[in-house]
């Protein structure tokens, strides 16, 4: 057999498949979901994927979609790999997606400049580029409800409160264990600035991506340095490994804080010793909400979900639900503004800028008390909403604080500088031409 | 029938030592190049952006590694890092001198990679085989550490990422978000053809023979007057040059922006598998390897759901992903058992058989 024939055949198949992508009927809205149920981050990604899919599927089953238009859901597997993520983006681009959720900072970064060209909004929920909170510079990117800088300032504020005032942190030592990548390093400048102003000391413990599972050297250093508090910025298997190492090295768990990414499984990996571990969160856990009970009734019990029944309502599952809540709300607002039923990416961008999830709206959606209210606008694509602290009691997360407001005055400076910097570095970064809607 | 030697006489040395002695081969090559250019206008944007551009980029990187591993016999696990050097060098150069055309910087960035490659190639004089692989592994980790730790490399960008600014060629954007897949494909294709042609001349000429002599028996080569140090370092430099250019193309003409993590150890293995599957010491094998390792999973991802749906089986994206892994893995084992010398050897056997067809010999 000739390999030329074979390769010609392959090329023909690829071309056919590439050109003959199914065209969707006009009376549906196409929502691609980038997921990672495989690979090293599957332990976190699977639950998020389930939550995202199940909420939107529930809307399809219960209400027949949004505003009477059915949602066409399609998963694309990225494996948390930038290569595959970009491939997914290209694969879905032709099908008129109304929004993409990359679910990886690495995939978000290459997509940011393309969003305005392809007219597809990006929803990177509390990850991605923090500077993209500035709607006037990044009209196509949304990262609600808080940036990493907001998150760090909340943790410092909480620790300060416990000590009896921020100024009491003077002379203390705060350890910062983080993934040695853009994501983990982002809060460092703000941490150092706060350290200088308040007068505490910072010890950095970077963990390289390939050493996520093995953090013994970092925790050995932490044991030597004896930081008064530890703050963690990790994802995937790094969180579980860190909790395990912290328990093993005898670090007092009630002094160990994390940003919003660890899951129940991460805390469980510390055995009984993880009790007292604290993390930020902005939405409830559990199934005690009408909308989530609807998911159980209309989707999970009918066998249309891939989620195990007991995982519904866990932290990362509900994180996925929150993500889909934003997607659905963006679509609903877009329908309201434009009066169209089958909205496009451009409409949904406008819809997202008009998201107004107040207490009444959350109640209407069956998510009363699920999360803080959120209002996005033309200039503010983030909301900078407060989050609360929750503690691991050995079996589940328990909310232990009121919502903590971020230190807006400090964060804003970082944000503006970063956004300006990004636009300057990318010479020819387009000025915003998209008109702003009047808040409805 | 059409593919035969009869009637084509070689009347001088030049014709006898030609790389493509058969007229049919030359016509075939011209047709393939023509088809490749035609695809820019016929192919969909998915085909160009998600299949062909990365395929060409990986082919170029595979050629680079093939020069080192296939032709000179030096095993390297630092390919990903050398690609990274090219990408970071290109970024620094084009942001520092925005006035110079970016094509120039893509070619120049390869020289930085070549210099770094030659530096890390120094141990190759004393150590061989797996031990050298471990030494190049050090290059991989050290360079990756540099990419993370030296903010100067990304112009103190807060996100720590490289991003492609808008750059034009003859007034058409070829880089940045406004560049269409079509123009980017044409640029990548032209660069890859140019560099492949150069590599073909290198490996078939005096330098290539020196490399092959070193690979086959370095002691004998030394006795014949080939200096091992210079030859090995040259192989490292040329190989890294190709990888560096491939890295710059990867970030700026394919992704449009990337984190340091793109150039991790997995990338090195990815390219190494392409070289081994495609065929060590073969340029066309580099293309075959890139096709099998990179394009086949994409084709499977499209074909599998279509194949399974008539049977009423609707499978999720994750199952497809697992199936992809299994099928590609099985195929790799199959090819290695059936033809340990790679796809290039199969291609050669196929051509031999065609030449004498319909007779068995």
What does this molecule look like?
- The complex is a heterodimer of chains A (440) and B (361).
- Chain A has helices at residues 3-19, 42-63, 82-93, 105-118, 148-163, 182-185, 188-199, 216-225, 237-248, 264-268, 290-300, 315-338, 345-353, 359-364, 408-425, and strands at residues 28-35, 70-77, 122-123, 141-142, 173-179, 201-207, 229-233, 256-258, 278-281, 356-357, 374-375, 388-392, 397-399.
- Chain A has 440 residues and is an alpha/beta fold.
- Chain A folds into two domains: 23-146 and 285-377, Response regulator (Rossmann fold), CATH 3.40.50; 148-281 and 387-408, 3-Layer(aba) Sandwich (Rossmann fold), CATH 3.40.50.2300.
- In chain A, the strands form four sheets. Chain A has a seven-stranded mixed beta sheet, sandwiched between helices. A two-stranded parallel sheet of chain A has the order 1-2.
- Chain B is globular and about 65 Å long.
- Chain B has a domain at 42-265.
- In chain B, 47% of the residues are buried.
- Chain B is mainly alpha-helical and 361 residues long.
Quick tags:
heterodimer, A: 440 residues, alpha/beta, Rossmann fold, 2 domains, seven-stranded mixed beta sheet, 13 strands, 13% strand, B: 361 residues, two-stranded antiparallel ribbon, 14 helices
